[in-house]
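Record now logged for everyone:
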Amino acid sequence: MSNIPETGRSTRVQTRLVVIQVLVLSLLATLGGRLWYLQIRQGDEYAAEASGNHVQQVVQPAPRGSILDARGVALADNETRLVVSASRTDLLKMKDDGKAVLTKLAGVLGMRPKDVMDKVRLCDAETPQPCWNGSPYQPIPVTDEATPKQALQIRERAEDFPGITAEPMAVRRYAAPGKANTGQVLGYLSPVTDEEIKKAENTDSPFLRSDQVGRSGLERQYDKALRGKAGVTRYEVDNLGRVIGEAESDPGVPGSNLVTSLDARVQRVAEYELNEAMKAARKEMDRNTNRLYEADAGAVVVMEAKTGRVVAMASNPTYDPNAWVGGISAKDYKRLTGKESNYPLLNRATQGQAAPGSIFKVVSTSAAVEAGYDFDGGYDCSSSYSVGGQVFKNFESASYGSIDLGRALELSCDTVYYRLAHQEWKKDGGNNPKNPNDYFYEAAHEFGLGKETGIDLPNEVAGRVPDREWKQKYWEANKDAWCKSGKKDGSYVERLAYEGCLEGNKMRAGDAINYSIGQGDTLVTPIQMATIYAAISNGGTLYDPSIGKAIVSPDGKDVQAITPQPHGKLPISKATLAKMDDALAGVATRGTAAWRFEGWPQDEIPMHAKTGTAEVHGKQTTSWFATYTDDYAIVMTISQGGTGSGASGPAVRNIYDALYGVSDDGKIDRKKALLPEPQAKLPAIKADGTIPAPKISKDIVKDLLPDEKASPEEEYAPIDEQQQGATTPTQNGDNRDTRRHRRHGGGRRRGAAGGSGSRRART
């Protein structure tokens, strides 16, 4: 008989089980209590400690793509520099906010402590430049011009420079090949802001805090393609900064390269000639104001006539975009933006507006034909035209009798256009219009004026066509001010305000008359007029001007061509366009521009031109010169510079000489020609994606000057003021200016002037 209980357990076993059960329950209770203590009682404390274990991003900036000219010459690229940066986050952890460290750093770099501290402060509405407008968590560059010795000092004495780094980095470089600055076209970079980061975070092109972003010019227009994508490696780190693992890694993608239609050589010539023309104009006396011309600003555009592609675009005053690399200094920022700077950041080719003067007459001629006036009809080119007691004069009261519209363009006869515009104004109902046709205003809109051309540059301005709609809106906006300041018998300005108050919304006869010759409230930009004259050259197609030609991926395998896009046709029949073309050729051979194109090989390279001199109330006259061949259209303007042919004429002629290789005696040397025909093909792209560039002279202008017969000073020297007169038709096709010029020195380059022609109003 067994002595084992029915339960199969002895008293000892049962006791042990009870003890184990109590022990397990005690352990569970202890564990539960501990969990409650950690998660509930001490939860916030441990959550704060756990936050120290986080993911840290290490960013490898992507090399920004280069901006190249049409032949592959780099206009903007990257170079490796030693960059010294400061971590604002680390500096603010110090008792003195890092002042001692920054002062010590200034001593090593040879800078003033204040300049260093200004560079690392954050920008706001009350903080002037220099300051940091990027993310406060991003290392802030103090200088990108550190020497190897300075960088070594900083790195070897790291304990003396907490929060300071000195590393080789790729930074933007604006190379100015051949001394072609190209500042306003290229633009510049600056750090991305928190606002931009937030705005772009859900797009297909988000920003990182380390990114630099284009602020103007091509850098801004093509920023997404040029920027590429930075590489990011994410590490898991503890609250002491120790790496405890790698989370993930996104490889970087270099930016694409932008091939443009610009030619660095032509760009340099255009910049040089514009600057020389402005300097020469400042030496000439303005008879109207009895002071020297100010010639305070100017622009020139060289455009392919058949495509609208821009070969060169210069604006003066200009600036060096390298000033922005690594952060701009207070001195440079003031120089670029101060009241006395005359705003060099402004691209006057696309953002400078002025009355066009007589280069606008191609629009008025088209409008007259559309209104039913015969191009070949007879129109009185009288010395003056009177309306309501006001006399509108032709230049120097010159009178040429009955002429057709073609000859009116050649002579730039104002009174012909006065009559046409006044007659149409009366047909439209005068001061009380009823369903007016407004041919002259509609023509301007059809020519593309009053709106942006669509060029691939940011912040283009639209100009202004002062039609009835604009007149009404302008009056509504200014009526109260005019009524407050206007006086019936006051000063000239007060009388104008008085009249504006009463009937400023009415289209007056004087408005129509002034408008017909590009005066009054009309405003245009050089790029608009270049687009128009290119369209006249190519048969009537208005193109969106373009600078970008192709976007090339870093490996060269993906090439996205940027095709020229037309946006309209000139409102001119083929027959009228052909007659206008002949008339503009006549301007260059026997009209107001003939003295500037003396010796030009017209039979081989037909030249067409139109001069313009716009009068601006309170300022000196604005010079305009619009030209074209079968290949190119060139438009130049100089604010307060004098007449079109006088101030801008020689510079435009010299640009053409460089393009086609034309010498003073009219011979063409294609070996010396910079670009006798537009660059059609893209530059060669190697298998590894690199784009080899042809060699370019240090200064193409110096290469051209040895072949000249005159120095720049002689080239722009004025003809004796007493030798100038009105342009007069002659039997042999010469005008009076040309014959006198020939008698007093012969060569075209020895007689290009700003002063002598400055009395030729509106030519």
